[in-house]
Specification:
Low-confidence stretches of chain A: 1-66
CATH superfamily of the largest domain in chain A: Response regulator
CATH architecture of the largest domain in chain A: 3-Layer(aba) Sandwich
Helix content of chain A: 25-40%
Radius of gyration of chain B: 20 Å
Distance between the termini of chain A: 67 Å
Largest sheet of chain A: 10 strands, mixed
Low-confidence stretches of chain B: none
Strand order of the largest sheet of chain B: 1-2
Chains: A alpha/beta (519), B mainly alpha (351), C mainly alpha (297)
Oligomer: heterotrimer
Order of helices and strands of chain B: HHHHHHHEEEEEHHHHEHHHH
Structural class of chain A: alpha/beta
Strand content of chain B: under 5%
Shape of chain A: globular
Number of domains of chain B: 1
Chain lengths: 519, 351, 297
């Protein structure tokens, strides 16, 4: 292993056979030599690899710039049209991330460290007991200090924002090519084709609604484009080219339902938007409520065009549940909250979408969202030091922004993650990078530690239970430091061994109906 | 044959002289040849502009030549797309799948239009209500399709997909040749040219003349002994089939369709294209559709947030100053008055 | 007590649905029903009213005054629109349709560009009244009452005032009206402006119950058009009242039993069927009934 910048020796491992070479692209010597990434991804970790990772930072400094051609990040969001409330936030997140990368900053994190990573809170006792072994008996030599106090290993690590040792990515400036999809699916398809075929972007970060993602996924698959989908969604995408860094149903539905059942009682009533996300999330709620002792007594699916809810409210009142699961999406359906409050509807509410995406608690007057509970992965109010630092950086760059929602935060850390993976791989070649990402990555996002799982291309997230009170102040009453996206694992998805290009639905999971109470 | 030629060069569309036809042929040849200088992406992009032409032509036929404004042409666009997706999706692996799917799509379109048209025209609904009725139909279709997300909403092996849309729709296939990229461009180009020419023949024919009479004065036409309801129905079905052709081409281009393709905004687009070009001329509509689609794409891909405002302003300006459509008015005035035609046009003939 | 409360709840839902349809259609009754202008910018006029109300409310203006202010502002805008654009489209319904669609695009996208993705909300005034397991919003009850008052006022305006007489004359036979000394140009402007103002007023009334965003107008467009069209042109005001009652009568029980989706579908299907069976609208049927009764009286 030498220090020379000769690329074929970069990681001290013999080049592996042809099978891992990037398909379809003209392989340069540099790229051929990086088949080792495929080797690493398949689990054949060479001994020198770990050491090389730690040296990776100083290594990239000595790597000669790959010409001065910029790294192109393709970005499609809705900056006008109905979904612009969310699209503009995501654009700002991307702009912030790109600026930070170009200034030589990154977030702490690395590959193969496992869920939890560097910043996990750990417990330690100030004065632990000392144990000595006498034969098979374990004797307590010193009982230690007060058993009731523990301390935290890492104080909430505000310093996750560190220097990358690099200017841009591998010395190349990062350019954000952002276009406006105007909430129009056909335009999304055209723009995706343009970014992929004509501008030849190195990575594509796009999509708010599932429809938008599904519109461009065939194009992504046709050209084997590396694609990140950073939004919360209904789950199930198993696509070798796509990495989903947003939360999915099992990470949010089950925690919040468990909390509601514990606190308010077992009878839940679901109000969901009448389209894929609403229907699938409602199906999750109904199927898994029995596992935590609850039961959904009735469901109502409201078309996206409905904006007047007196009938819906009357039906809820007739059913008399203990709590209401509101999975309402879109401008029209948000009107439910003020109308329900005005009608005097006092049931506690649970959701997986509200507050964190469309910041209804800031847009509507109290007490519309009183007693709203959400198992969030991120929202602006997360009370950790690292988040406060992140919000401050954001507001310095975008002082007019009204909120930072979860999909904005996801976009932010995803782009940083991409930069880290590229630095490790030493290239922006997409096939190689997909293999690099399939190492499994831990990154210290503003929400907490996020872990990108190798086989499913989804992330384990830090989940907190947010409660909105009658003055629309937010408090976090419970947290789960890491919840995996386990559903795809249960379905047997391993995109490294068996590449797929589809989206699974709950009907393909036999466990889904197993515990459903016949009502 | 000469009769056909006479029909082609009839008075009901712009351009009759030999110079016009020479130019027309030259442009066609150019369009056939210039993909050799284009990348595959640019060819498919241009194909996207072209594939919107049939639905606009159908609407021009219905509105400009027969006097009936339908706000719901996109409903047939969507129906054809979804039916094609279902049929060919269930026949994957079978080379005849796409062809069967296309035929089924068009057939279902025609059937739906026939039923709806019967409902409307034989009910002698007032003319200005038709746009609203067709709009309601479109909204109904969108609402229905939007809630088909569940697994139970599938036909054979193909899921309807709700708002996530139907994905993985196969491309068109002729024998062993899969039509994508450059071949797709030629496929669309041929369909558009043939469609335009055949509609041109139709409007100049005897049948077309009666159609125009219905537009001018339905009662008089009826008094002359023609069954206007039947003719309106037939024209409505033809327009729907053309909308269906656009729908087929769209899913064969993008392999994907969602209910938002039959939504309110999409429903208004053909009306805008036809109004801006000039509804009384098929050629004008053909040109304006391509131009407006190109404009929309260029504005949005350059990061312009004002694309929709610009289109709105364009629409208002056109309706104020070129009430018959930009191209139609220019075609009418330029030969008469030259460049002075561009001045004081709003004082011209009221539409 | 329980079934009594349920009956009251159903009545309340019926009234709310009807009031929603009627208020959505209020401005359009005048513009479409009387002037025959297919105004696709109707939703955006309501949006303007809501925006005016929100901006005024957040400057401390009491809510009822905000609504009146919304009426005035949008009426003024309507007058401007009429003078510059709309008057060239009298008699050209389809042209009016296209140009108003263009105006709606400009207004909604313009609102997005100028004001951002949403405006701060107005809290719903008034509390709620409970009855059994149900509770009803005081604000909606007020709105229902207001809708009745407004429609009665509109009826009175058009049938018992000079302006109303002149307006009806100008609509029926402009040449004759002009010959009799009616300034038709001014009448048209005032009528359009009234229609716009009413749309703005409705928008302001709806403002506390919806999120105030650039595209909020779109949710009212379809209900408004359906109500006016089903009402018919024979007598627009009575027609709109009749059609909103009829449509609400269909939607309410279905929506209560089967849910919002089926309710919406039922409404659209009902509209299609009614237009087919009564092409001239509800008002024509009512008119025939009244005539028949007068003949045999």
């Amino acid at each position: 292993m030498t220090d020379q910048p000769r690329q074929d020796r970069q990681f001290g491992v013999e080049p592996k056979p042809e099978s891992f070479e990037a398909s379809g692209t003209s392989a340069t010597d540099r790229r051929k030599a990086l088949k080792l990434m495929g080797a690493a991804g398949a689990g054949a970790l060479a001994p020198g690899f770990g050491a090389t990772y730690l040296r990776g930072f100083e290594y990239t400094r000595s790597v000669q710039a790959q010409g001065s051609s910029p790294v192109k990040v393709g970005f499609i969001e809705d900056e006008s049209g109905n979904l612009s409330v969310y699209g503009i936030q995501k654009l700002h997140a991307a702009q912030l991330a790109v600026k930070e990368i170009n200034e030589g900053k990154t977030l702490k994190g690395g590959p193969d460290i496992g869920a939890g990573g560097l910043g996990t809170l750990g417990n330690v006792a100030k004065k632990p007991p000392t144990i000595s072994k006498e034969g098979v008996a374990l004797d307590v030599v010193d009982a230690g200090g007060d058993k009731s106090t523990t301390e935290v290993v890492f104080d909430e690590d505000a310093d996750v924002f560190i220097d990358s040792g690099d200017k841009g990515i591998l010395g190349r400036e990062v350019n954000l090519l952002s276009v406006d999809g105007q909430s129009n699916n056909a335009l999304w398809q055209q723009l995706a084709r343009r970014l992929i075929q004509q501008d030849k972007v190195d990575v594509l970060v796009a999509g708010f609604a599932s429809a938008e993602r599904e519109a461009i996924r065939p194009i992504v698959d046709q050209f084997k484009q590396l694609y990140f989908y950073t939004n919360q969604y209904e789950g199930g995408v198993a696509d070798a080219n796509t990495f989903c860094t947003g939360p999915v149903c099992e990470q949010q539905v089950i925690p919040v339902v468990q909390y509601m059942v514990e606190k308010f009682g077992p009878r839940g009533y679901t109000l969901a938007a009448d389209y894929n996300f609403g229907q699938l999330t409602a199906a999750w709620t109904k199927a898994f409520a029995p596992l935590v002792g609850g039961q959904i007594i009735a469901e109502e699916f409201v078309p996206l065009s409905v904006s007047e809810f007196s009938q819906v409210i009357a039906r809820v009142q007739q059913a008399k549940p203990d709590w209401v699961m509101t999975l309402l999406v879109g401008q029209n359906q948000q009107n439910y909250y003020p109308q329900a409050a005005a009608a005097g509807l006092k049931f506690p509410m649970a959701s997986t979408v509200n507050m964190a995406q469309g910041y209804e608690h800031k847009r509507f007057k109290p007490p519309s969202l009183a007693n709203m509970h959400n198992a969030i992965q991120y929202q602006l109010e997360v009370p950790t030091a690292r988040n406060r630092a992140f919000v401050k950086r954001w507001m310095t760059m975008f002082p007019e922004d009204p909120y930072i929602g979860e999909m904005a935060q996801n976009t932010y850390f995803t782009i940083h993650l991409y930069a880290k993976a590229a630095r490790l791989a030493g290239t922006t070649d997409q096939a190689t990078l997909k293999k690099a990402l399939e190492l499994g990555w831990s990154i210290e996002a503003p929400e907490g530690s996020v872990f990108l799982e190798p086989g499913t291309h989804h992330c384990a997230h830090y989940i907190r239970l947010a409660v909105c009170d009658e003055n629309h102040n937010v408090k976090f009453v419970r947290d789960w430091p890491s919840i995996q996206a386990w559903w795809l694992q249960r379905l047997g998805v391993n995109l490294i061994r068996h590449p797929e290009y589809k989206q699974y639905t709950p009907d393909e999971d036999p466990y889904f109906k197993m515990f459903l109470k016949k009502s | 044959m000469s009769h056909l030629l006479k029909l082609l060069t009839g008075p009901e569309d712009i351009g009759r002289s030999r110079w016009f036809w020479a130019a027309f042929v030259a442009v066609c040849v150019f369009l056939f040849v210039y993909p050799f200088w284009l990348s595959e992406f640019e060819a498919t992009n241009n194909a996207y502009y072209l594939l919107n032409v049939p639905i606009a032509l159908g609407l021009a036929l219905l509105w400009g030549y027969c006097g009936i404004l339908s706000f719901g042409q996109v409903a047939y666009f969507g129906v054809a797309g979804y039916v094609y997706g279902i049929v060919s999706g269930n026949m994957i692996g079978n080379a005849a799948g796409p062809i069967v799917g296309s035929l089924c799509g068009l057939a279902v379109c025609a059937l739906t239009a026939a039923i709806f048209g019967y409902f409307v025209f034989y009910g002698r609904v007032q003319n200005w209500i038709v746009p609203i009725l067709t709009l309601v139909l479109t909204l109904l279709l969108e609402t229905f399709l939007g809630q088909t997300a569940g697994y139970q909403w599938r036909v054979g092996t193909v899921q309807l997909g709700g708002y996530n849309g139907m994905t993985g729709i196969p491309a068109f296939q002729v024998g062993q040749l899969v039509v994508t990229g450059y071949s797709f461009y030629y496929y669309v180009l041929i369909i558009v040219v043939v469609g335009y020419l055949s509609l041109r023949v139709l409007v100049n024919s005897q049948y077309g003349k009666v159609m125009l009479a219905i537009r001018e004065d339905p009662i008089r036409t009826e008094l002359l002994g023609y069954d206007i309801r039947a003719r309106q129905l037939v024209v409505f079905v033809i327009a729907a089939v053309f909308a269906g052709i656009s729908g087929l081409l769209y899913v064969q281009w993008g392999n994907y369709i969602t209910p938002s393709q039959v939504g309110l905004l999409q429903a208004s687009l053909p009306v805008i294209w036809v109004a801006v070009g000039g509804r009384e001329s098929l050629l004008a509509v053909l040109l304006s559709t391509c131009a407006l689609n190109w404009l929309n794409y260029t504005l949005s891909s350059e990061g312009y947030q004002y694309a929709l405002i610009i289109i709105g302003v364009l629409l208002v300006t056109v309706m104020l100053f070129f009430p018959d459509g930009i191209i139609v008015t220019l075609a009418r005035e330029l030969p008469k008055r030259g460049w002075r035609a561009l001045v004081g046009l709003h004082k011209g003939k009221a539409g | 007590m329980d079934s009594f409360a349920t009956i009251v709840s159903i009545l309340y839902q019926f009234a709310t649905n009807g009031a929603f349809l009627l208020l959505s259609a209020l401005g359009l009754i005048v513009i479409l029903g009387m002037m025959n202008i297919i105004n696709l910018a109707h939703g955006e006029l309501m949006m303007m009213g809501a925006y005016t109300a929100s901006i005024a409310w957040h400057r401390g203006v009491p809510f009822w005054l905000c609504a009146i202010l919304a009426f005035l502002v949008v009426a003024l805008f309507g007058a401007l629109l009429e003078r510059t654009i709309v008057r060239r489209f009298y008699g050209r319904e389809l042209g009016a349709l296209v140009v108003t669609w263009g105006i709606s695009l400009i207004l909604s996208q313009g609102a997005l560009t100028v004001f951002g993705p949403f405006l701060p909300a107005i809290p719903i005034p008034g509390g709620s009244i409970a009855l059994g397991q149900y509770s009803f919003s005081v604000y909606w009850l007020t709105v229902i009452a207001l809708a009745c008052v407004l429609i009665a006022g509109l009826w009175a305006l058009y049938n018992y005032t000079t302006f109303g007489l002149q307006a009806r004359a100008a609509m029926q036979n402009p040449a004759m009206a002009r010959a009799l000394g009616v300034d038709t140009g001014r009448v048209y402007m005032l009528t359009f402006s009234l229609g716009a103002g009413l749309a703005g007023f409705s928008g302001a009334l709806f403002a506390p119950t919806v999120s105030i965003a650039p595209f909020m107008g779109q949710q009212f467009v379809a209900p408004a058009f359906i109500t006016v069209v089903v009402g018919g042109a024979t007598n627009v005001i009575i027609g709109a009242l009749g059609s909103s009652l009829l449509l609400s009568l269909i939607k309410t029980p279905i929506g209560f039993v089967f849910g919002a989706f089926v309710g919406t579908v039922a409404l659209l299907l009902a509209a299609l069927v009614i237009i087919r069976l009564m092409p001239d609208g509800v008002s024509a049927v009512l008119q025939r009934l009244i005539d028949r009764r007068n003949r045999f009286a």
